[in-house]
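Model it.
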Amino acid sequence: MVEPIDEVTIRPATPDDAPDIADVHVRSWQEAYAGIVPDEYLSSLDPQQRAHRWRELLAAGPEDRVHTLVAHAGDRLLGFASYGPSRDEDARRGEREIYSLYLDPGTWGQGVARELIRSVVAEVGEQTPLTLWVLAANERARHFYRRHGFQPDGVERLDDVGGAQLLEIRYRRG
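Modeled.
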């Protein structure tokens, strides 16, 4: 049984959040991408290895222009979102990109992702163009992003994930 979440707090991530972010990151990938990404790759994901990378990223701070927000309920990290300047070749000046948005699978459907995406939009500005990439086979995520004002913009790419060539679709808001 999933415990209801009373109050979600969104705040900037710190290096101390790295282990919890890494844990959520790995568990979310393993749940969301089961049947999409090769099982061997998903089972090889290591939270400790990810924590090291997250600690380095977060220690660099927003000076390198990547911002990460975390969602908490009490002392429990529920999810995170990272964003910054768009990395796409055709990006317009000032365009931002959501690099990642992942939740503890036990919190799916409880409004945590909604709070994170609203916080990202508020930070970048309602009128700022915002993009993200989503696996074509991830219907749950695609539906979520459409509900929050993102639409496919016609740009697609193949990405090698765990040895499989997977189709990604770019979504745009604004």
